[in-house]
Model the fold of this input.
Amino acid sequence: MAVVNVDDKNFQEEVLKSKLPVVADFWAQWCAPCKRVAPILEEIANEYKGKIKVAKIDVDQANASASRYGVMSVPTIMIFDKGKVLSQSAGAISKNEIKSKIADVLSM
Done:
């Protein structure tokens, strides 16, 4: 599976210390818009394999990480690079919007 499941225990290792930029999807099981975004992120993980990492962070399992980054609604998609948040979007966004944000990060 191209998408990594992340919780509070492995957040630092998988997201903050990642050698690749990380598209972090803060989501929840009960969230309908999260279910619409999930297959898009799966496609992106496959398309950008080796260039970025896609991490799914269930806010109910990783509430310390979610609150540390001020996640108030799900889905919230953040792009991290070298431990810093470079982009943040709340709500379901399109594949093109996500790809545009990734392009911005990869061009830095």
In short: The chain is about 35% helix and 25% strand.
